[in-house]
């Protein structure tokens, strides 16, 4: 039994890596925050992402996906519009930033700053409908195909979340070290690229909400 539980944990690791390293808003937020606010800020954003994943896992595993029947997509549309607004605002704010290389010495951050980092990570995760879909499909696969029991499923999820946090921490760590080679032009290009990605992701969510 122990063998199967440990096996489930290690099976979850590549899934967590795949989910965490997809080039979505969270990935670029980690890079931006680590460069501008330091590695510790990225760690708290990653913690918020994990909290969001725990909530989504709870919904998916307990069958709350039934809240999204095909004939009633209002709740799904609300989430998509909310996510679109959040990403558009973040993207516009990033495009308007005037950061220079001399500004990249992180200021002393307070508990409130770190709490906001956690909230940002959680919000970015929860307001992406694709995440709930991904966890719902994963839960269904574990139950219907792999025939995992409760303990194996929890072990699988633990592997997923551990790998997710480790990968996102690594992204933040490597982004922090980019500061040594950044100049004003590179910072401007990074902010422009990240801003456009956020706005593009927001636009896609708006389109999905409009199409239903």
Give the overall pLDDT as a whole number.
77
The main sheet comes to:
none
Rough outline: globular
Please write the string of helix (H) and strand (E) elements.
HHHHHHHH
**Poorly predicted ranges:** 67-72
Sheet/helix structural class: mainly alpha
Radius of gyration: 18 Å
Q: What is the beta-strand fraction? A: under 5%
Span of the ends, CA to CA: 45 Å
The total of beta strands comes to: 0
Which percent bin holds the helix content? Answer: over 70%
Number of helices, counting only DSSP H or I runs of 4 residues or more: 8
Would you summarize the structure shown here?
By secondary structure, the chain is mainly α.
List the helices and strands and how they pair.
Elements: H1 2-20, H2 25-37, H3 39-61, H4 74-95, H5 111-126, H6 129-144, H7 150-178, H8 184-211
Helix pairs in contact: 1-7, 2-3, 2-7, 2-8, 3-5, 3-6, 3-7, 4-8
Structure description:
The chain is mainly alpha-helical and 212 residues long. Helices cover 78% and strands 0% of the residues. It is built from 8 helices and no strands. The longest helix has 29 residues, at 150-178.
Keywords:
single chain; 212 residues; mainly alpha; 8 helices; 78% helix; 0% strand
